[in-house]
Amino acid sequence: MSHLLEVKNLDVKFDTDEGRITAVENISLSVDQGEVLGIVGESGSGKSVTAKSIMQLNPGNTSYNEDAEIILDNENVLQFTSKQDLKKIRGGKVSMIFQEPMASFAPAIKIGAQMVEQLLIHKNINKEEAKSISINMLKRVGIADAEKRFNQYAFELSGGMRQRAMIAMALSTMPKLLLADEPTTALDVTIQAQVINLIKDIIKEYQMGVIFITHDLGVIAQVADHVAVMYLGSVVEKGPVNEILKNPKHPYTKGLLQALPDINNLDAPLSPIPGNIPSPLDRPTGCVFRTRCPHHNPEGKDGKIEMKLIEVEPGHWVDQCGIKCGQNG
Amino acid sequence: MGDNLISVNNVSVNFDYQENFISKKQKIHAVNNINIKIKKGSFFGLVGESGSGKTTLGRAILGANKISSGNVIFHDEERDYDLTDMNKQDLKEYRKKAQLIFQDPYAALSPRMTVRDIIAEPLEVMRITNSRQETDERVRDIAAKCRLNIEHLRRFPHAFSGGQRQRISIARALVSNPKFIVADESVAALDVSIQADILNLLKQLQTELNLTYLFISHDLSVVAHVCDVVAVMYLGHIVEMGPSRELFKNPKHSYTKALLSSIPSIDPEKRSEAIELKGEIPSALNPPPGCVFRTRCPNPGVDCKGGEIKMGLIEVEPGHWVDQCCAI
C-alpha cells in the first residue's frame, strides 16, 4: 500500500548573508492514513522546516535538493510551481495548526469570516453552506455558543478556545494530512489535556494522517503512533512510539529521556545533555551529535562515519554511529 | 521566627479595572489573603495555571507590585524589613537582598550591552562597589560561579544560546549578593536538555551561596524535582500547600489531583488517565463565591455547591495544608 505522505531524501538549505545553512539533511519519513507521526527535537533541530516544506511555506531563500521527493497522494509536491497547484495543498489537502493561535488568526477579521473565506477558496460551495459547515465545526471541537464565537475576533477568546477554533478552521476543509506544529505548547496542562484528547478523537473520526511536532516527549507518548527524533536537521532515530521511548538506542534519545524530570521518580538526578546545539553554520561533519555525545564511538569522533539509518529491529531505525555509541553505555 | 526568611501575612493584591471611561470601576482580585512562610535555605515552589496569580504574588514579595492589604516581612540577620512600611533607604537595601530571574532570556538582556556590562549594572546602579576594579572582580567571580567563561564577558548577548543567556541572567541577579531569589518561570523557555542544566545550577548555587528561592512555575514535574515546599495556586488563592514529596504523593485537593493527572505520561501504554477539567479558569473580575474552584471541580461535595464554604486552609497533616472545602 502506498503511503499518504512520503518524504524521500529531503535536504533543505537556506541562503543567508553568512552563507548557506543546512537546515535539514537527508530526511525520509512516511505517514499513513489515520496515523500520527510525532517529530521530537530541541529548538533548531529542523522540525518545523520539515513540516513547512510539505506545504512549501519556507521563505524565498530556500533551496531543495534535486533528488528530493515529497509524495503526497501520489503527487510530488516539490514540483508544484503554479499557484493553482499550491492552492490544492495549502489548506486543501494539507492543513496546519500553529503553536501560537493568536499569531495565526488575523486580528482585525472576525473568526467566522476567516473560516468562511478559506472554505470558499477550497470547496465549491456558497457562503451560507460555508457558514453552516464552520459553525458545525466549531461545535465539534467543543466551543460553546458557536454562533456567537463565529462573529467574534481572536482576541476575545481565551488561549484554549483560540486553539480549538484554530483546529476547527484547519479541519473544516477536510484535509488528508494535518500538520500540528507544537499545538499544545502555549497551553496550560489542564487545557493541554483537553486539546490532546480532542485531536485524538478527531483523528479517529476523520482518519487523516497527522504530523505532530513537539519538544515534549510526554505529549508524544500520549498521541503518536510513530516517532522520529531529530537533531540538527537529521533524523537520528525513528520507529514505533513504544520502541523509541522504552528501548531507545541513540545516545541523543537516551539523553532527552534522562533530562526529563519524571514526577514518578523524584530520586532520579536530572542529567542534562552537555554543551549546546552547534550553530547550523558550523554543522559537524559525520555524526551531527558527536560534539555533545557522552560516550564517543571512537570511530565517530573525527566525523568520518556518515549519517545513515540502520534498521535494528523491525521498524526501528537508528543512526549507525549512534548504535555503537549507545552500546558503549 | 528564627528560621524564616520571608513571612507573607494575609496579603491581597487588587488591581483597578475600568472597561472604558464611562463604565464603573471594578477591582481585579489577583491575589487573595495569602499566608506563606519561606524558610531560610528552602526552595519554595509556586505552581498554578496562567491567571492564578503566581507572578503577582512573586512581584508583591519583591515590592514590585503594591500590596493592597496584609504585609510581607523580610527577616534579615540584624533586622526585619516590613515591605508595606519602608522608606527609600530601606527599599534600596532590600533590593540588594532580593532579586528576580526572568522567564525569557531573550527579552531580559539588552542587546546593546556586553555581558560584562549587563552583569555589572546592578553593582553600579546600587552603588555597591567603589572602583571599576572591584566591579570587575565581582563580575568575574559570579560569572565563574555561573559557569560562564571570562572571554564571554566581552561579547554581546546575541552570540549566546538560550541556556547561556539564562546563565547570564542568573549571574546578574546574583551579583549583588542577594539572599532571596524569585525565579519566575526561569526554565520555561528552555529545551529539556538545557533545562536540566539550569536547574542543577540553581541547586548548586543555593548551597554555595546560601540562597533561598521562590520558584514560580507551571511545570509540576520540574517543581516536584527541585522544590522542598510547594504551594498550589488557583485564581488568586492557595488551595494546597505542603512538603513537595508529601504533596505530590498524597494530593488532597481536587485541583492538585487534576493538575497531576494532566501531566502527559512518558509511558505510551499509560494513555490518558487525566481527570479532565471542564472549561477554563474563571475571570478574576468576578470569581465564584465560596470555593473558587467549584465551577470546575470534578467532584463537588454536597456542601460546597452553593459556595457557602469560605476559602481557608486547614492543616490535615503536619505542614500539609488544604483548602477546607476539599479537606472535608
Question: What does this protein structure show overall?
Answer:
- Chain A has 329 residues and is of the alpha/beta class.
- Helix content of chain A is 34%, strand content 23%.
- In chain A, helix 7 runs parallel beside helix 8.
- The longest helix of chain A is centred in the middle third of the chain and has 18 residues, at 189-206.
- Chain B has 328 residues and is α/β, with parallel strands linked by helices.
- An 8-stranded mixed sheet of chain B has the order 6-7-8-3-9-10-12-11, with helices on both faces.
- Chain B starts with a strand and ends with a helix.
- In chain B, helix 3 (115-125) packs parallel to helix 5 and helix 5 (162-174) runs parallel beside helix 6.
- Chain B has helices at 54-61, 88-97, 115-125, 132-145, 162-174, 192-209, 220-226, 244-249, 254-262, 324-327, and strands at residues 4-17, 26-39, 43-47, 69-75, 80-82, 98-101, 180-184, 212-217, 229-234, 237-243, 313-317, 320-323.
- Helix content of chain B is 30%, strand content 24%.
- At the A-B interface, helix 7, helix 8, helix 9, helix 10 and helix 11 of A face helix 5, helix 6, helix 7 and helix 9 of B.
Query: What spatial form of chain B do the alpha-carbon principal axes imply?
Result: globular
What topology, given as strand order, has the largest sheet of chain A? 7-8-9-3-10-11-13-12
Count of strand segments of chain A: 13
Radius of gyration of chain B: 21 Å
Please count the helical segments of chain B. 10
Secondary-structure class of chain B: alpha/beta
Please give a quick description of this structure.
The complex is a heterodimer of chains A (329) and B (328). Chain A is of the alpha/beta class and 329 residues long. Chain A is 34% helix and 23% strand.
